[in-house]
Amino acid sequence: MAIVRSAATKVKIKEFFFTAAAGTTIDVAPAVRDTMLLFGVDEAGPWPGGTPSAELKAGSVLITGTVNCDEQLVSVTITVSFRTPGTEPEVLTKSRCWPLPPAPAKSTDNEDVTGLVKRLVRLAVVELMRKLTGENPVPWGILRGVRPTKLVHRYLDQGLTYRQVTAKLVQDYAVQPAKADLITGIAIHQRPVISNPENRRRMKNVSVYVGIPYCPSRCLYCSFPAFVLPEQRDRLEAFLQAIIRDINSAIDIVQKFKLSVESIYIGGGTPTSLAAADLAGLLELIKHGFQGINTSEFIVEAGRPDSLNDEKIDVLRQYGVNRVSINPQTMQDKTLKQIGRQHTVQDIIDIFAKIRQAGIPVINMDVIAGLPGESAADLADTMHQIARLNPENITLHTLALKRGSKLMDSVYAGALSRHNLPNEKTTQAMLAIAADYIAQIGMHPYYLYRQKHMTGNLENIGYAKPATDCLYNIQIMEERQTIIGIGPAAGTKAVSSGPWRLQSSYNAKDVPAYIKNLDIYLHTRNTLLSRLYGDCKED
C-alpha cells in the first residue's frame, strides 16, 4: 500500500515490475520496492516474462537490477523500461560503483557488502525516478531509519568537516542540500553533549525513563500504549505496585555501580493523568532514588491540560520538576475536538499560565503540522498563539500514520479521505510558516527524528531557546548514553564505547503482561546493565 501520495509527474507511473538479472545473488527487490513507494508507486509483482518493449503497458515500468561484486569493487546497474501513451518504449540506465574495504572490515558508512549493494540500488532508483517523473518527493533521499543524525555523528567521529559531511549526504544518499545542512548543523550543535568515547567516566553517566501508560482519552493519531483513566482502582493499584518494584530495582542498579543520573524523564501516556497523591508518591521515590549532584533535568510529560490542576502543579513544583511538556498539537478548537481531545484552547492557555506561576523554568509545547482539516492559515494562527505564550522549547511534528492508531485504522478500512488531511505541499507550507515563527522567538533546532509514513517524507524537529536544550532528547535520539527504562513499553539501552555499541531490553506494552512478567523484565535489564558496568572502572 502506498501511503505517500504522488504529485503530478512528467511520466505518470501506475505500477512497476522488478526482475533481477541472472547471476545476481543479493536480494535487492525489497530495496527497489521501498524506494518506489517513496514515489507513490505500488509493485505489480514479478515481470511475467516476454519482451518488455512489446508488452509493457503505458503507465507501467519494468526495473531490472544487475549486481556485480569482486574483492575490490561492487557495481550496481539499474535499468528502467517504460512507455507513455502513443510513444515507443524508452529505457533509462544508471550505474553505481563503490570500493569495498578488505574483509571483514566495514565501509566508512558502517555497511557490509549486502548493505552497500542495497544502498547503491536505492540511490540508482531514486536518481532514475527523479529524472523520469520530474518530481522529487524524497527530501531525505535514501536515508532510512528514525535517527539520520547518527550517520552525521559517525562522519564527525571520523574527522570529516561540515562541508565534507554535507557533500557525502547529498552524493551518497541523495539528500537534498537543505536537509543535509539541517542535520549536520544539529549534529555539530550536539557534539558537546555527546559522550566522549575516550573518557570512561562519562560512560557511567546515565538517564532514566519512567513510562506511565495512562491518558484522559486517546487521540486520533496516537499509537502509544496508553490506557484511558479513570481505571478501576484495583487494576491501577496493581500497576502502581509493579512500577514501584521496577523503580526500586533500577535504583539498586544505579547505587550498586555508582552511576550518575543526568536526566530523569517521566513520560507515557500522560503521567499527570494519575491522581495527585499517586503522582506525588512516584515522584518522591524517583527523586530520592535517582537525583544526584549531576542531575540537571527532571522532566514530566503533562501533555494534556485536562490532566492537570492546581494540586498536581504544586506536586510537580514540590518535587523539583524543572521541565514540563504541554502538548496542544494545535490551537484550533475545531481540530482539538476532531482528534479526540477533551479540552479547549483556553484550557491550554490557562494551564500554561499556572505552570509559569509555579516557577517551573522550562516549558515545551508540541505542534503537529498536517492535522485533519487544517489549513496553512490554521497553523499560522496556532504558531501566533504559541509565540505569544513564549515557551522555552517547541517540538514541531509532521503528522505520521502510525500503526495501531485510529488514523491508520482508517487507512486499512479505505476511509482515510474522510479525515480531510492536508496534502504534502500544504504540510510543507505549514512547516515553513512554523519555522519562521520559531526563528522570530529566538529558537534553534537541537534534535531531529523521522518516522515511517510521515506526510511528505518530512521530519520532527525539536527547537529550543539558548541554554534550554533538553539533554534527554539528544541522548535518546543519538544513543550515546545508557538509558534505563522503567514501566510498560519502556526500553533500556545499554551503551558502550570504542566502537559505539548498543544492547537493548524492552518491557511489554500491555499493562497486565508487564505486571505478570515483571520478574523476567527486571532480570533481563539488570543482567544487561551488570555486564556493562561490572567491567566499567573509573580512570
From TrEMBL:
GO terms for biological process: porphyrin-containing compound biosynthetic process. Coiled coil: none annotated. GO terms for molecular function: 4 iron, 4 sulfur cluster binding; tRNA-2-methylthio-N(6)-dimethylallyladenosine(37) synthase activity. InterPro entries: Coproporphyrinogen-III_oxidase (IPR034505), Elp3/MiaA/NifB-like_rSAM (IPR006638), HemZ (IPR023995), rSAM (IPR007197), rSAM_horseshoe (IPR023404), rSAM_sf (IPR058240). Residues 200-444 form the Radical SAM core domain. It is an enzyme of class 2 (transferase). Pfam families: Radical_SAM. Keywords: Transferase. Its EC number is 2.8.4.3. One of its GO terms (cellular component) is cytoplasm. This is tRNA-2-methylthio-N(6)-dimethylallyladenosine synthase. The gene is miaB_2.
